[in-house]
Specification:
219 residues, alpha/beta, two-stranded antiparallel ribbon, 6 helices, 36% helix, disordered N terminus
Amino acid sequence: MSSISVRDNFRNLRMEINLRSHWDNIYQSKAFHDLTWAQEVPHTSLDFIKGFNLPLDSSIIDVGGGDSRLVDHLLTLGYTDVTVLDISAQSLERAKQRLGADAAKVTWLIGDVRTFVCEKPYDLWHDRAAFHFLVTEEDVKNYLLMAGKCVNQFMILGTFSTTGPTKCSGLPVHQYSDQQLAQLFMGDFHKIKCINVDHLTPNKSMQNFTFCSFRKKAA
C-alpha cells in the first residue's frame, strides 16, 4: 500500500471517528422530539414503499436510519428482512430499546455510509437525509458506486431541496433539486418520480425536502 493510500485511509478513519462522536453526542443529549428530523409517521417514505408492492420477505435497508420510526412501521407492515445502518451506535441503541423484543427482528449495522460495504444486495434502499451530508465529490462518487452494487430493485432518496437548509446539526449539507438527483443516479437507475415535501420540525420551522424514487436498470 502506498504512503498516499495509508494517509488517505488514516484521514478517513479519523473523520469517521469524529463523526461517530458528533452524532453519538447528539443522541445522548437530545430526546427524539428535540431532533429536527423527528417524524412519528414518515408518511412520504411509507407512501413510496407501499407503491412498490414489494413482497414481505424483500430485503430493505434504511441508510442513516438511526432512531427513525420507519423501522417500526416496516415491521408493522409485516416486512421480515429489515436492516438499519447508522454511524451512531447511540442512535441504534435507542431504537432497540424502543422496539423491545421486536428489535431482534432487525439487523443493526453501525457504520459510516461513506465507507459502507454491503454484504448482500437489497431490494429496497431507503435514505432520508444521509446522502445530503456527503459534500465532497469523492464521497458522492463512492456513494453512487456503492448504490449501483448494493441495490437490486428500488431506491428512495430524501435530501434537502434547493430551498431547504444549508446545514443540519452543525454540519454542512448539499441541497438537491429533483433534476440534479436524477442526473447523478442515471448511470444505474431510472427515475420513477420526484416530489418536494415540507417537513415541519418539532420547533415549528419548515424544511423543504426533495424525495425521489428510482428503479435499478437491468444489467
